[in-house]
Specification:
Elements lengths: L14 E4 L3 E6 L2 E6 L2 E4 L2 E6 L3 H15 L8 E3 L13 H4 L3 E5 L2 E2 L2 E8 L2 H10 L1 E2 L2 E2 L9 E7 L2 E2 L11 H8 L1 H24 L2 E13 L2 E5 L8 E5 L15 H9 L13 H19 L5
Antiparallel strand pairs: 1-2, 2-3, 3-7, 4-5, 6-7, 8-14, 9-12, 9-13, 9-14, 10-11, 14-15, 14-16
Length: about 300
């Protein structure tokens, strides 16, 4: 049985930042990211922990950082706990598989979303306006239908509450057109490479969220990458436009919450045991299908 991790106070390093799922610590010139087993949906953290979730997210990110390094560098230094700073030698077991030593980055205040298929908030906006983030799409597209080509639909990066969708032009006004163009082009390039690989594993990568920063003046991809928290993964064999898909990601939990009529405001409800177990199994299946390895 994998140990569940929520509180990371056993780490004797200064806390740099605590997110909904990740706790980040100062590690000299670098940072240590620890991925807990917390889960959030609709920007609210739930009281339940999902077994093995932290290990899945950390290990999938490490896989993709390595797989895409020919397109752009990333912040990962190592996931080998034996190479961590000496101060962490007493908590190797807790950190094994769920942590990553990374370089510090000056983060860009935007989330770079690439959509290859029509689902989620993009579907709702399309049904209202025929567009997503100012991008006009063909009429008559069905739920989960493949788009003619992937589209870049950025959002703001909110410290509190919900991120807000913005147009490419709004992003360019905030960070400059040259950087905005670079983020769009690299995000789509990363998505296409990952989507092609995922298809070889019988999985559709429907959409994803990426974050970037500058490390020593060079643009790098940071945080997480093509995980079940930041992406939609669908089973190719079961894929059929016009309805929700069999997914290996947080969508299962979102659909459960929609079904029970939760108002998406804190506090989050307690999740039934079967929802916790089903969520865990979907995360593990995503990891094992994508990497071809068993989760240790």
């Amino acid at each position: 049985m994998s140990m569940l991790i929520n509180d990371t106070s056993f780490i004797k390093l200064p806390l740099y930042k605590q997110g909904k799922v990740r706790n980040v610590y100062e590690a000299g010139d670098n940072l240590l990211i620890v991925v807990t087993d917390r889960i959030s949906a609709f920007d609210v953290v739930f009281p339940n922990l999902i077994p093995n979730k932290g290990k899945v997210l950390n290990s999938i990110s490490a896989f993709w950082f390595d797989y895409t390094k020919d397109i752009i560098g990333n912040h990962m230094i190592t996931t080998d706990v034996d190479k961590y700073p000496q101060e962490l030698s007493n908590c190797k077991e807790e950190l094994e598989g769920r942590s990553m030593l990374v370089r510090r980055a000056q983060m860009i205040p935007a989330e770079c979303i690439v959509r290859g298929y029509l689902e989620g908030s993009g579907l709702k906006e399309y049904q209202r306006t025929g567009s997503i983030c100012g991008i006009k799409l063909p009429e008559g597209l069905k739920q989960c239908e493949k788009l003619p080509e992937p589209i870049f639909t950025p959002t703001t990066k909110a410290e509190e509450g919900h991120d807000e969708s913005i147009t490419f032009e709004e992003l360019a006004n905030r960070i400059g057109s040259e950087l905005a163009t670079k983020l769009r082009d690299i995000s789509i390039k990363l998505y296409l490479k990952a989507a092609k690989y995922a298809e070889s594993r019988g999985i559709i990568l429907a959409d994803t969220k990426l974050e970037f920063g500058f490390i020593d003046g060079e643009l790098a991809v940071c945080d997480e990458m093509f995980t079940p928290d930041s992406s939609r993964f669908w089973d190719m064999e079961d894929y059929e436009p016009g309805r929700p898909q069999k997914s290996f990601d947080k969508q299962y939990l979102r659909e459960y919450l929609e079904k029970i009529g939760w108002n998406k405001q804190p506090p989050a409800p307690q999740l039934p045991e079967d929802v916790v177990r089903n969520t865990e199994s979907k995360y593990i299946e995503a990891y094992e299908r994508i990497t071809g390895k068993k989760l240790c």
